[in-house]
Specification:
elongated; nine-stranded mixed beta sheet; about 45% helix
Length: about 675
């Protein structure tokens, strides 16, 4: 039986593997076996292993599909015959005479495991690095060179390095305590390390060096940490399960160390401008939301699960001219307990630089960077990580009046309402107060009101409202993430939120300032040349699905239809050409075909859909008689109501148009066709 089993997981390490093997086979301590587990390498690593195995009968080559270093090490553990086990990375190499010195110490003291020092070398510069962690400096010197265990000083010994290649482990100890590596792509050694730490009776730290450890190796597991950052969180969950029988105070010591390590690697990723930093930060927020805030170290305080009063969400795209005014109005609010989540949606101007400039000066600002996916996607990303009790969606070219949040929250607190709305001042790009536009956004009520979506006039825009995050979460109200929808979902979001709410506080103060820009997204749509008009039709199924899933009755469904009618009436007439009108009508027909199975003939459509929509576009139906009739048939309009519609619902302007023979022909054709039914 060999004294030491050396276990080497190997994956695409042809550049370094020979030096690693040479350093092991040439050790002065000969009583070893060398178990090399080829983890599905696609380079020449397997050939090199077989070449060395043919020359040295102490080398055993195990071949497996690519499953990761953790499983490869476990494979080695299962067949190891040595008294002690040493794990070596295939891109590292062993110090001369290391095993002879180490075995003498572990054998003499009957240790469960021993930890040593390591030299660190930068692969890119070939220079030695001074890394305190590998020098065991995180554990005081008076704990070196003597037998210790975790329970003697848990707050100190929790800092023993986790790297398995820094020491030797007694095989019987590993087997008896069922200690194994996890199967994560990265961070698969921490659970092994802490399971060993809490299970060992006899541990020793010594000042001998055992390995030359390479850093900054291209495609090493460490270099892949950013891509697989979620492995940190999964590892922490594994460790929680391992230590669950320990007293609470000892569990906290270990978990605090784990979370501190996660913070370290987050800041490494942040400093290196990792392309995965946005995903890392989102995952970090979710992870910390389930962690006792007393365990969160200083390097992660910004992400601590502390409830913030208001999360301000600002989607940003090419607004370098206006974003400073917006940010200044937010950061200088009298309410300071806010977070400001700015999602740069692939700007090609200086917007991102300005955001980063402000974030460097104000820790409340978090900048998220994404490719250009649209304003709804940007809001969706921000809403996922928002921690505020209240949510405000602010447009990047608008600005807030001083005291806006303080006044709105005071109204919510006093009234216990579900949402608060304020009045909006509208300006053009020359800074001129636009009284005509203000009429569109002025509130018709004041104080606390029960929400009545049938009778009250309210604008579905997001930016003059403060929403309760709990209502958003409880009702799973979201923006469609990474869909073709680019605009219009703000009114769907508002509509669903109001359906989920009972009361609203109408605040008559003009607290939000809206900039009506010529080249803004909404005005581009209003230019009648944009396919974004169709977003209103694409969005409606989200609202219908919500109504259907919640089991709402006819009242809510009628409200939905009324909203559909209004959208169609307002947008359809403005579509720029025949082709787009045909496409829109087909979308409408397809949608009502989807709804028909549940609501039959949809009797509710007879008056509003036929009279207000179809009849208001007489000139179009002249060109598209067949499609028009098909739409009427497929939406199930009721014949009996049409004569009443003719008088009661058709505007005077239509009667004037009917005097023209071509309109009268279509009008008679439509009614004649429907009477035959």
């Amino acid at each position: 039986m060999p004294k030491i089993s050396v276990i080497i997981p190997v994956y695409n390490a042809e550049k370094y593997l020979k030096q690693c093997l040479e350093s092991i086979v040439n050790q002065t301590f000969k009583d070893i076996e060398i178990i090399c587990v080829n983890d599905g390498s696609i380079d020449n690593s397997l050939e090199i292993l077989r070449e060395y195995a043919a020359c040295d009968n102490r080398i055993i080559v195990v071949n497996q599909t690519n499953q990761g270093a953790g499983i490869a090490r476990n494979q080695g553990i299962e067949i190891a015959r040595g008294e002690y086990i040493h794990f070596v990375d295939a891109d590292d190499y062993i110090v001369d005479n290391a095993y002879e010195n180490l075995y003498a110490i572990v054998n003499q003291n009957d240790l469960d495991f021993i930890k040593c020092k390591a030299y660190a070398i930068d692969e890119k510069t070939n220079s030695r690095l001074d890394i305190s962690y590998y020098e065991l400096n995180d554990v005081p010197k008076n704990f070196h060179n003597r037998i210790v265990n975790f329970f003697e000083a848990p707050d100190i010994l929790v800092n023993i390095p986790v790297s398995p290649w820094l020491g030797l482990f007694k095989k019987d100890f590993v087997y008896k305590k069922h200690i194994r590596f996890n199967n994560l792509k990265c961070v698969n050694d921490r659970s092994f390390a802490f399971h060993s730490l809490i299970s060992a009776d006899k541990i020793m730290l010594i000042n001998d060096y055992i390995v030359w450890h390479r850093r900054n190796v291209e495609m090493s597991l460490v270099s892949l940490r950013d891509k697989f950052f979620d492995c940190h969180f999964a590892s922490c969950e594994n460790i929680k399960n391992i230590i669950k029988e320990l007293p609470k105070n000892l569990q906290d010591i270990i978990l605090r160390r784990q979370i501190s390590d996660i913070g370290h690697w987050y800041h490494v990723s942040k400093k290196s401008n990792s392309i995965y930093i946005n995903e890392i930060e989102k995952s970090l927020r979710k992870f910390l939301a389930g962690i006792d805030k007393n365990l969160v170290p200083k390097n992660l305080l910004f992400f601590a699960p502390r409830m913030i009063k208001v999360s301000v969400i600002i989607p940003v795209y090419n607004v370098e001219k206006h974003i400073r005014q917006c940010l200044e109005s937010v950061v200088n609010q009298t309410l300071k307990d806010i977070e400001i989540i700015c999602v740069n949606d692939g700007s090609t101007d200086a917007s991102l630089n300005i955001l980063n400039e402000y974030a460097a000066k104000d820790s409340r600002i978090l900048v998220v960077n994404q490719e250009n996916l649209g304003v709804e996607s940007a809001r969706a990303v921000a809403l996922e990580i928002a921690r505020g009790e209240f949510i405000h969606f602010c447009d990047p070219d608008d600005w807030l009046s001083i005291g806006m949040y303080e006044k709105m929250i005071a109204s919510l607190s006093a009234s216990k309402a579900d949402v608060v709305m304020c009045n909006t001042a509208v300006f053009d790009e020359n800074g001129i107060y636009n009284k005509d536009e203000i009429k569109n956004y002025s509130l018709q009520f004041a104080g606390l009101q029960n929400i009545d979506l049938y009778n009250q006039k309210w604008q579905p825009v997001l930016w003059n409202k403060l929403f309760r995050k709990k209502i958003i979460d409880d009702n799973n109200i979201k923006f469609p993430y990474k869909t073709k929808t680019r605009r219009g979902y703000d009114e769907i979001f508002s509509f669903i939120y109001f359906l989920s709410s009972k009361t609203c506080f109408y605040l008559q103060d003009f607290l939000y300032n809206y900039l009506n820009r010529k080249n803004s997204l909404i005005n581009s749509v209003r230019a009648r040349q944009s396919p974004l008009y169709f977003d209103n039709w694409y969005n409606l199924p989200y609202l219908y699905k919500f109504i259907e899933e919640r089991g709402y009755g006819e009242k809510e469904f009628n409200l939905f239809l009324k909203r559909y009618h209004n959208l169609t009436k307002n947008f359809f007439a403005k579509l720029p050409n025949k082709e787009i009108k045909i496409s829109a009508l087909k979308l409408s027909v397809d949608f009502f075909n989807t709804v028909n199975p549940k609501y039959g003939s949809i009797k509710h459509l007879s008056k509003e859909y036929v009279s207000n929509i179809l009849m208001n576009n007489m000139s179009y139906w002249v060109l598209q008689k067949d499609l028009c009739l098909k739409a009427i048939e497929e939406t199930g309009a009721i014949l009996d109501e049409l004569d009443k519609c003719k008088i009661q619902y058709i505007p005077d302007v239509i009667f004037k148009q009917i005097r023209d023979k071509k309109y009268l022909e279509v009008y008679n054709l439509i009614f004649a066709k429907m009477r035959k039914k």
